[in-house]
Design a protein that fits this description.
With 429 residues, this protein is an alpha/beta fold. The chain has 2 domains: 8-52 and 373-427, Urease, subunit C, domain 1 (Roll), CATH 2.30.40; 57-358, Metal-dependent hydrolases (TIM Barrel). Helices cover 28% and strands 23% of the residues. Helix 4 (160-173) crosses helix 6.
């Protein structure tokens, strides 16, 4: 890792900003962008010819597992995976042990992130105590600790009245509620998408309606309360259509999609390999097409990894007993760039600018490449072809569905808070 006293020059990259793209050198010093121009010099010079330089990526949906499941991941190892993927900020999901439903646990995650994290680690808060769907967390106390995004991720809030009350509190405190959309009574025992493949295999199916019914319900609750709601990891064509209609109505809703839901189909589970088991499940090609269309037309605001590490012995169970989840941080850019044709500005919008706004950190993350702005920066390309190896990933776990696959596009350098943390694809700490 470079010293904050060392100036860094990114030479010859195409600057990607919301309004314009242009080739220039970028010099970073004392934690900020000091100059954007030609023939700049500095203590460290990074050749970025043929690359793009943008604000660092922001992940709205990262499972760091600490506290409680450090065997699978820690804040340190997860943040290392993040910066290798170009992320300079991650929102840490609250389904830890203990859960992030109280001030002490939120403070632990935040302080641990500051002590050992290679990027900004932002604790989210639960919506309900213990993520049990009944009693609301102390929103005001957690908000005073800087928590702006609340979710019971892994479990949807089943009770509509509880959800409505949460939205009302969030509206009053200017917070964002993120919903895991799943009607639990419709997914009991389910392991994969309820479709032709599932029927052939003879395993319990997970209907699209389980997601769509909660999206529909929550859109009505947003209509009633006027509160902001963010829909997590949408996976079905119907969900995209519902969100598109809600946005056309002017409702304050946003949505994310994961790299795996736009690149992998449910047919991969015909092998009964639990590496492809995830919540919500992989869907059909028709759903993937709808998700990709949603990215293109702005219905989907963000790409979020849902990075979900699991210790090897847990993922090696049978399909029905193995936990759902996949690694996602280091492969995100490559998967997205390989699966969908997006412009560099669209990639930056979906992976940096928009997520920063949704996470309420756009005062310092997702900023333009301009003089005086904080130096949270990713340098990446869309042409490098590389093969994923689970044994070479930084995560403590190896449950990537992309092992052995070739991806196109990779992060070359990552700068966090003015310090070089990834150089030529290698973490420096």
């Amino acid at each position: 890792m470079s010293s904050k006293n060392q100036s860094i020059v990114i030479r010859g990259a195409t600057v990607v900003n919301p309004e314009v793209m242009f080739v220039a050198d970028v010099r970073i010093a004392d934690g900020v962008i000091e100059a954007v121009g030609d023939a700049l010099t500095g203590d460290i010079v990074l050749d970025a010819t043929g690359c793009y330089v943008s604000s660092g990526f922001v992940d709205l949906h990262t499972h760091l597992r600490e506290p409680g499941k450090e065997e699978a991941e820690t804040i340190e190892s997860g943040s290392r995976a993040a910066v290798l993927g170009g992320f300079t900020a991650v929102v840490a999901m609250p389904n830890t042990d203990p859960a992030q439903d109280n001030v002490a646990t939120v403070q632990f995650v935040r302080d641990r992130g500051r002590a050992v994290g290679l990027c900004e680690v932002i604790p989210s808060g639960c919506i309900t105590v213990g993520r049990l769907g009944a009693q609301l967390v102390p929103f005001e106390q957690l908000a005073k600790e800087g928590v702006t995004l609340f979710t019971d991720d892994g479990t949807g809030v089943q009770d509509a009245l509880v959800m409505q009350r949460a939205l009302m509190v969030a509206k009053r405190l200017n917070l964002t509620i993120s919903q895991h959309c799943e009607v639990a009574s419709m997914t009991v025992g389910a392991v994969m998408h309820d479709g032709a493949c599932c029927s052939t295999m003879g395993v319990p199916g997970w209907p699209s309606a389980a997601e769509e019914e909660m999206v529909r319900r929550d859109i009505q609750l947003v209509r009633i309360t006027g509160a902001r709601e963010h829909f997590m990891h949408l996976s079905t064509k119907g969900s995209v259509e519902l969100v598109r209609a809600a946005k056309a109505e002017g409702l304050p809703v946003t949505a994310e999609v994961t790299p795996h839901h736009i690149s992998l189909t449910d047919e991969l589970l015909s092998s009964f390999d639990p590496i492809f088991k995830v919540n919500p499940p992989l869907r059909t090609m028709a759903d993937i097409t709808a998700l990709r269309d949603g990215l293109a037309d702005g219905t989907i605001d963000a790409i979020a990894t849902d990075h979900a590490p699991h210790a090897g012995h847990t993922k090696e169970q049978t399909l029905d007993t193995a936990p759902p989840g996949m690694l996602g941080l280091e492969t995100a850019l490559g998967v997205v760039n390989t699966a969908v044709t997006l412009s560099p500005q669209k990639i930056a919008a979906l992976m940096s600018w928009n997520p920063a706004v949704i996470a309420n950190i756009s005062d310092h993350q997702g900023r333009p490449i301009a003089v005086g702005e904080p130096a949270h920066i990713a340098v990446w390309d869309t042409t490098t072809v590389w093969s994923v190896s689970r044994d070479e990933l930084a995560s403590r776990s190896t449950n990537t569905p992309y092992h052995g696959m070739e991806l196109r596009g990779r992060v070359r350098h990552t700068i966090y808070n003015g310090q070089l943390v990834v150089q030529e694809g290698k973490a420096l700490a």
